[in-house]
Amino acid sequence: MALAIVHHPSYAAELPTGHRFPMGKYAALARNLRDEGLLTSENEQLAYPVTRETLLGAHDATYVDAVLNLSLNEAEEKQLGLPLTQTIVERARHAVGGTCLAAELALRHGIACNSAGGTHHAYHAQGRGFCMFNDVAVAIRLLQAQGKIQRAMVIDLDVHQGDGTAQIFANDPSVFTFSVHAENNFPLQKQASDLDFGLEDGSQDEAYMLWLRHLTVRAIKRFRPDIVFFNAGVDIHRDDKLGRLAVSDLGLYAREFFVVQTVRSAGLPLVGVIGGGYSDNVETLSRRHAILFRVADQFG
Ligand SMILES: [Zn+2]
Question: Which of 8, 111, 170, 234 could serve as a FRET partner for 28 with CA atoms 20 to 30 Å apart?
Answer without folding.
Answer: 111
